[in-house]
Design brief:
The chain has 5 helices and no strands. It is mostly helical. This is DinB family protein.
């Protein structure tokens, strides 16, 4: 992620308010911010899905994403179903998301990332590309 991309994401994250409503899906603004932060926690290995999460064929996950359909969230991390990191205050949660994004930017290329729950081993480039895609998707969900 370039510095310009990080700055653009930071501006978009800063625009989020509790009054923002999703154009699709059921997450609140706070849940979405925590959901996006949890994706980074998965990458860093500080958060893991439930051990018995359902493995999905990576080709199916990719096809769903490319067709604009919802990709299932790993078991235990679905915000709407009460999983994942619980929102605190929106301002605090936005700060955490931006801090985790900055951490991703600052990590060395050879950092030992945790494997992706569906796709397996990921390097920095793949986690960064997924983060950009995922964050764009959810910020657009809330029209920012």
């Amino acid at each position: 992620m370039t510095t310009a991309q990080f700055q653009e994401f930071s501006k978009r994250i800063d625009q989020l308010t509790l009054e923002h409503k999703p154009t699709f899906g059921k997450m609140s603004t706070g849940q979405m911010v925590c959901h996006c932060t949890d994706q980074l926690r998965l990458a860093f290995g500080s958060l893991r899905p439930d051990e018995d999460y359902i493995r999905i064929d990576p080709k199916k996950v990719r096809a769903l994403a490319l067709s604009g359909k919802t990709v299932p969230t790993p078991k235990g991390l679905d915000q709407v179903k009460g999983g994942g990191t619980k929102p605190t205050t929106l301002e605090n949660d936005k700060l955490l998301l931006k801090a985790h994004l900055q951490e991703l930017v600052n990590l060395p290329e050879d950092y030992a990332f945790a494997p992706h729950p569906y796709f397996g081993p990921f390097d920095k480039k793949r986690w960064t590309n997924l983060t950009i895609y995922h964050l764009n998707h959810h910020l657009a969900q809330f029209n920012v």
